[in-house]
Amino acid sequence: MTKPNSRERILSRLRQTNDFAWEAPYVVPSPVIDVMPAPENLVSTFKQELDLIGGEAFLVENQKDMLSGLTEVLKSANIASVCCEDAHIGEILSEAGILVNQDYSSLVAVTGCDFLVARSGSVLVSSLSGKGRKVHVSAQTHIVLAGASQIRPFIRDAIASFKMKYENLPSWFTLITGPSRTADIEKTLVTGVHGPKRLIVFIDVAS
Length: 207
Description:
single chain, alpha/beta, Rossmann fold, four-stranded mixed beta sheet, 12 strands, elongated
């Protein structure tokens, strides 16, 4: 009598089993848990994340300090004037002695934003927050003026707030996460390919 092979032995054991659960028991799924918990401090988290991806975040106590910091950045880069399409921001800059133009070939562009995303260090902008699209990608340096109240924990929170902000959504909006960069060519990181090489965000922590 020949010995049963391994396959026959396994099948024989299965046939002798009186109660074999062929299907895994159904388990009620638990609530969705975020892999990344909400940050405790939105301002410091945003600054940390933006710094990690090559951007620069400056925290100021009021508008006066924001304008003073902006002036220092322009002076250190030897910039005479900035491009600004937003009439309100342009008026504030002019009152601070900063020359404003609407020339997209300028080295520096200053805009507002709709919201900031703490966990990714992203800036949510639209054709309304910058008074156009081109201003966000034309200059070599993009300076964003924002308040702490505009920071949201995650991208989904920023999008939800964005939809609530506008009854009719702008024709264009996007997320800017750090300076423009790519590593498509031989995995060599190059900055300033599709937009500014430098992204600076001033955050008024009191607003």
